[in-house]
Amino acid sequence: xxxxxxxxxxxxxxxxxxxxxxxxxxxxxxxxxxxxxxxxxxxxxxxxxxxxxxxxxxxxxxxxxxxxxxxxxxxxxxxxxxxxxxxxxxxxxxxxxxxxxxxxxxxxxxxxxxxxxxxxxxxxxxxxxxxxxxxxxxxxxxxxxxxxxxxxxxxxxxxxxxxxxxxxxxxxxxxxxxxxxxxxxxxxxxxxxxxxxxxxxxxxxxxxxxxxxxxxxxxxxxxxxxxxxxxxxxxxxxxxxxxxxxxxxxxxxxxxxxxxxxxxxxxxxxxxxxxxxxxxxxxxxxxxxxxxxxxxxxxxxxxxxxxxxxxxxxxxxxxxxxxxxxxxxxxxxxxxxxxxxxxxxxxxxxxxxxxxxxxxxxxxxxxxxxxxxxxxxxxxxxxxxxxxxxxxxxxxxxxxxxxxxxxxxxx
Length: 411
Prior knowledge:
The protein has one helix at 2-13, and strands at residues 33-34, 49-54, 64-66, 69-76, 85-93, 99-108, 127-129, 132-136, 142-146, 151-155, 171-173, 176-181, 188-193, 199-204, 219-223, 226-233, 236-240, 247-252, 263-265, 268-272, 280-284, 289-290, 296-300, 311-313, 316-320, 325-330, 336-341, 351-353, 356-360, 365-370, 377-382, 392-393, 397-400, 404-408. By secondary structure, it is mainly β. The protein has a single domain (2-408), classed as YVTN repeat-like/Quinoprotein amine dehydrogenase (Methylamine Dehydrogenase, Chain H). A hairpin with a 6-residue loop joins strand 12 (176-181) and strand 13 (188-193). The radius of gyration is 19 Å and the shape is globular.
């Protein structure tokens, strides 16, 4: 019952979607929850693979799956050491995996800033809402396409100096596309009109940090009937009024290069402070102004992730650190139920389906664990390749590695 209540609350503030759709990073509720036809718990490179489709170039964006189509972004040629890239949106058919269309959205010039070797030139995940596809390439620009691949608008006027490339994905909120622009200097959060691409507001971060860059995807929450857009950054997190961009509250901390998308429940927002020494903070969302000293309910310092987002399931919060240490803890108190080292290193965010938690490591192995306060491993499933994109699902699992997209389902 607690899980059903949590999902219901999340659906209030999430984009409209069919039950089987996965329209954005971390799914229809933005928190890694899948509800629908049971997903497989066992597979390998030869078992339960419906199809395997080569994807040109390289991109660590996660798939969006809507209406029998898969939407991805990629960059070609994809070489992270090569600044000049074609930044592209791709549509595939879910039944066959075959390309439906492939469209260049932006051309990234030869003199563009270089990126970190672990990143890609297409790391922000696409978003589908109300028959439109929104793609974001960080400092290189944002665009809206129809679902046939026609560009409806593009915006490249939000300039900032990137560090390590792009990463954070946008969020659709009441006709606005909201995302962070946390670069080397003067970090800010911006909102574009989703119909026209014009800038509706732009708000500077109101604190400073020795290192100012971050890559976080916003999370929308509702507190006392009022929506907030929570956007972590380097040195702090703030909640914004989605209509005006006014800052509602903030908490400052020590940290930068923040990647994990926060999750919300029990009146708390759960987020990582990321590098150099990550902490997991649970923050009450009913404050006003600077609430650093009053609204941090609890802090976890061992096992917090730099890259994978947290997963909230009822009263339990699940984490996986980049080093592979998985943690289950009580969301209300921060009490640790268990910690186990999984195989490999991790960047992808975990997924919940059918009472199981799916942890995908950076070498194509997914460990499936039964959700609960006692650790129980169900299976380990190796597919190979380099994997940093998070899983998507629509009755099947979609797993992206550095060369292919896989559809995984019971056969």
